[in-house]
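Predict the holo structure. Ligand: magnesium ion.
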Amino acid sequence: MQLNEIKGIGLTTEKYLNELGIYTGEDLINYFPFRYEIIENTNTKDLKDGDKIVIGGICEQTPTVFHFSKRLNKMTFRLNTGEFIVKVDIFNRAFLKSKLNAGTVITVIGKYDRKHNSITASDIKFGLIEKTIIEPVYHSSFKINSSKINKMINYALDKAKIKDYLPKSIIEKYKFMDKKEATLIAHNPKDKVKLNRALERLKYEELFNFMLKINYLKNSKKKGDGLKRNVDYEKIENFIETLPFKLTIDQEKSIKDIYNDLINENRMNRLLQGDVGSGKTIVAFIALYINYLSKYQGALMAPTEILASQHYQNMTKLFPNLNIVLLKGKMKAKEKKETLELIKSGKADIIIGTHALISEDVTYKNLGLVITDEQHRFGVNQRGNLKNKGITPDILYMSATPIPRTYALTLYGDMDISSIKTMPKGRKPVETILLGNSKEDINKYLRMMLDEMKKGHQIYAVAPLVEESEKIDLKNVYEIEENLKKAFKKFPEYKIGIVHGKMKQDEKDKVMKDFKDNKIQILISTTVIEVGVDVQNATMMIIFDSFRFGLSALHQLRGRVGRNDLNSYCILLSDKETKRLDVLTKTNDGFKVSEEDFKLRGGGDIFGIRQSGDMNFKLADIKTDYELLLKTKEDSDRFIKSEEFNNLENKHIKDLVINSINQD
Ligand code: ADP
Ligand code: MG
C-alpha cells in the first residue's frame, strides 16, 4: 500500500512520515508504540516529588503563554482539583489556550513538582477520566504528533490486508489470535491482558522469522562457494611488524580466523565483535589488505560519513601504496564520476564509504570482500544487490555491542564469530561513579565538572532520550541548562550547548562543530550522541536519569569518553535501580556488561519503555524477550525440518524465506 492511498496523507504528511522512516503503508502499520501511557486518576494522598500524576479539576483562569522561540512555548495556569490548587505548565500547547477558560473541566497528565507545587504536564484532556485508559505513545516529531500517527495507522489498518507469516501449526500450538486483531490491539489497546497477548503474538512472529532466517541460512551454507585466493601469510606478518604497537592476542587471533576463512574454499560469513576502542578497525584494515594481496577489490561500509572519512584517512596513512578511494553520498558530480570510474576499471583497490557503496550506480570490477557494520545485517538488501552484479564476496560484520558467546551463538547462529576481549595496553578504564539526587551528590559532580573544565577538558551531559518526542523532556534539557548555568555562574568563560533530536540537522551540526572546536565546554544532549563523534578532549560524561537506559546502552555511551591516556569519568545519576546500575561501576568490559543485561532478561515490564533495538526489531527486545527468543529458536528448528516447511504450501512462508535469501 502506498502512503498516498491512505486517507489524510498528502504530500506534506508523506514527507514528515518519511522523516520518521515510514515509506509505505506496511511501514506505517508496523510503526508500533514505543511505550504505553496508562492513564488512571492518581491517588494524591502520598504524592512524592517527581511522581507521575493524572488529576482532574477546573481551570481557574485563562492561561498565560510565553514564547521562548518559534518552536518552544510554555502555557501556564492554575488548576483547582477540589482538594488543592496547583500550578500547571505545559510546553508547546499554546494552541489549546482558546479552549481553556476559567471553569473548563480538564484532566492534567504530567509530573508533580512538590517544591513548587506545580505539574509539568505532558498532556491535557478535556473532561474527567472515568476508567483506565491505555494510550499508545509513538516516536513522533514536531511536525506530526503521536495521536495523529495513531489516526493514520488506523486508516491504513482499515484498508490493509495483513500478511501472517506464522505457520499454521504454530498458531494452533499457541492458540495465537489473528494477526490483524493483534495489530489493532497493539495500536488501540483497551485492557492490559489483551494487550499483553497481542504483543506477545507479534513479538513471537518477529523472533520466529528472525530465527527461521538464521536457521535457513545456516542450512543453506554451501561448501566450496568461496573465492580462489593465494596469499602468503608472511606478507601480512611483515606488515604487522611495521605497526607502531603490538597487536593484542585477540586481534592476532581474529586476523588468523579471517585469513583462514579467506583462503579456504568456503565463503566467509564472520562477525568480529569487541568494545569501542578494542582495535577492530586495524583488524578490518588487515582483512582488506589480505584481500588486496589476493588481487580483489575490497569495500568497507561505515554507518556515517564522518566515520567513513576517518577510516579513509587512517587507512591511507597505513597503506600509502594502495589505491584507496572514498565514496560519499554528497560529492561533486565530476569527482563522483571519477571515483566511480576508478572502481569500475579496477584501479581502486579499496573503496570506503557509507550505504552509497551498494547503490545502483556503483559497478565493481572484482569485489572480493565487503566489511560492514552490524546495523546493516538484515536491514539492507546488500548481498542481493551485489549478487545482481554477479559477485558473491566474502563478508565480515563488525559489532561494537559485544555479547557473550552463548548468546551470540543463538543470535548469530549462521555466522562464525571472532571476539576481541582484551583492550590494547595502556588504555585507562573510564571511572564510573553512581550518584543520587541529594545535595551532597550534586555538589560532588559539580565540583568534578569544574575541576575538569579548569584542566581545559570538556563534558557531555546526557538527558534520557526515552521520551524524545515529548515536550516534557525538552523541559528537562532546558532545566538542566538552567541549573548548570546557575551552578557555574561565576565562570562565564565556560559555555554550554544543547543538541536534541528535534533540532534541524544544520543547527545540530553547528553545535557539534563548536563542541569539537572547544568553543563549547559542556554539551547537553537528549539523543544518543551520534555514532563516530570523537572528541578526544572530552573526559567526563554525566548521564541523568540513567535508570532509563539499558546497561549496554550506558556502556556504549560512556565509550565516548576516555579516548586517550587522560583520566576520564562517567557519572551515572539515579535514585532508582541502583543495584543494576552498580554493575557499571565495577567493570569496563562490554562482554560482562552485556551478560548482566541478559541475566536481567524477562525483568522488563511489558508496558515499560522499549529500548531501541540492538537488532532492528520493531517490537521484540533480544534481551528482555530472550526467553521468547529461545522458544522461537526451538520451534523454528523443528519447523524447518518438518513436512509443512518442506511442502512450503504456505505462500507467505515461502515469500519469507526467499526474502531472507535476497536480504542477506
Ligand atoms: P574499534 O574500531 O574497535 O572501536 P579502534 O580500532 O578505533 O577501535 O582502536 C582505537 C585506537 O587504538 C586506535 O587509535 C588504534 O590505532 C589503537 N590500537 C588498536 N590496536 C592497538 C594495540 N594493539 N595497541 C595499541 N593501540 C592500538
Ligand atoms: Mg573462503
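Residues 431-587 form a domain with the Rossmann fold fold (CATH 3.40.50.300). The first strand starts at residue 35 and ends at 39.
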